[in-house]
Amino acid sequence: MKSIINRMGKINGLNKFRKPLAYLPGLLVLSLGLYIVIDQPHIRFITNRIHEIVQLREENDNYRVFLKLTVFFRVWLFEVTNPEAVMAGDNPSLREIGPFVYDLHIEKHVIRVDEAADEINFTVTKTYFFNQKESGDLTEDTVVTVLNFAYLGTIQKIISLAATFLKKIGPIIHQIFPGVVSPFLTAKAGEIIFSGLPLDCTNVDKALNLICNVLKGNPPPLLKKTDTPGLFLYSLFYRVNGTVQGPFTVNRGIKNIYSLGNTTSFKNMRVTNYWANETCNVVRGTDAITWPPMPKKLSKIQGYEPQLCRSLNLSFMKEVMLNTLMGYQYKLTADVWNQKDMECYCPRNKKKVMECLPSGLMDIDKCQEVPVIFSEPHFLHASSELLDYAQGLHPSEEKHKTFIVLDPLTGAPISGSKKIQLNMKMSSIPTVPWFTNVSDGYFPLLWAEEVSPSTPSISTHTTPRLKSSISLVSLCTSSSSIAQSKIHE
Predict the structure, then answer these.
(1) Closest CA to 422 of 76, 184, 189
(2) How far, in whole angstroms, is CA 383 from its chain's centroid?
(3) Can you tell me whether residue 436 is helix, strand or coil?
(4) CA distance linking residue 476 with residue 457, whole number of Å
(5) I need a labelling partner for 85 at 20 to 30 A (CA). Which of 351, 362, 486, 488 fits?
């Protein structure tokens, strides 16, 4: 009997511990939940894994997209509807013809990888193929009348190098441009944009030999040599079609993820020599394709544009939703044309005196070695005086803005469009008959944009980065939700 009583006592003692033990699993879950909510290890896991995915490593999808992608290149030519009146002194009346759409294949060729600097050194080749479907009723055979950029550019180069020489050859310089009967050019769009029109130095007046010898020895970028010595072809974009550009270096983002995609050198220069001071010459900013993740919303982001040999700041506009994804929209604003910031890009005359253009214009002769002037399409964000001269332009923020929408988690572009307008300075030249009576102004040639084929939906070069990241977020968010639900129980 005594032993039975002793056993009962032991059982009652154990029962005292059973009730607290029943709460142990719940307490463990509660502790785990508190740890997840407060310390957020799942967030660190997601962040670290995304950083690994977007780095420019050979095993990553992002690296393969970095090396090769395809976008649309769209061109609108400005047709001159009153060429005779312009030669008599009237302002040009312009009509936009386009878009002429091309598939643009961009390939990067890696030269070397610098592990210590965490940089990739590479060149870029861009190849353009006409896309008839996207161009609609327009073809490369569509005939357009535009300002003869090669003829005017040749005259402007002579003026800058030896103005007195123009007195002798001004009246006959048109002879090297077969069929040219005015400062305007009527030709097929495909010839104007890429395939080219003839510049003939094979049988010219002796007075033109000097300029032809210069062209033969050192042809400007607009000219393409043919199999016939002295016969060239000129077009607006021949120089960038199928030719190697660079080299460039960019940061891989392995040592510092927030440096990912930053361009650190161009043509083997970390600080170029195109502009007036070092601040404007420093090479920095992404290529507009590879961006780092954004742990916080930035007021401005920066890209490097080799066609302008300079960096450009884009300003934050708003959060947008595209295909259920939230992105940060940034765009080029009027701030980029701030007079103080633009001063170092102003050309200097022979006396080293700064000669700034009207607001909204940038002379890129030093960068491109052709006398062209950059602006945004239809002189968006530019001085109103430009529209007084170029009749028929109608700037629209919606149609003509340069913008990009970035996924803040990965830095992947969700949507975007990069735009440029090319112009030339038109002015009276007494020694050249066709330019004797023209009025002074800035004459638009065309505007163009590079845009993803899938804009405004998710870009093809965005998808690999986002797919991996979304899967990670979904998995970890589910785990976090389970833990938090236990806390509230």
Answers:
(1) 76
(2) 23
(3) coil
(4) 26
(5) 362
The tokens describing 222, both together, are 């607009």
pLDDT tens across 365-389, in order?
999 989 999 999 999 999 999 999 9
Instruction: Give per-residue pLDDT as tens, 301-357.
Output: 999 999 999 999 999 999 999 888 899 999 999 999 998 889 999 988 877 888 899
Neighbours of 157 (CB within 10 A): 17
Is there a contact between 284 and 250 (Cβ–Cβ < 8 Å)?
Answer: no
Instruction: Write down the domain spans for the chain.
Output: 46-148+183-196+235-474
The pLDDT of residue 486 is above 90: no
pTM score, whole prediction? 0.86
pLDDT digits (tens, 9 = 90+) for 4-57: 545 555 555 555 555 555 555 554 555 545 444 454 555 666 778 888 889 999
DSSP-derived secondary structure letter, 429: -
Q: How far apart are CA 337 and CA 358, in angstroms?
A: 10
Q: DSSP characters for 318-382?
A: EEEEETTEEEEEEE--GGGG-HHHHGGGS-B-TT--B-PPSTT-EE-HHHHSS--EEE-GGGTTS
Nearest to 262 by CA among 408, 411, 469: 411
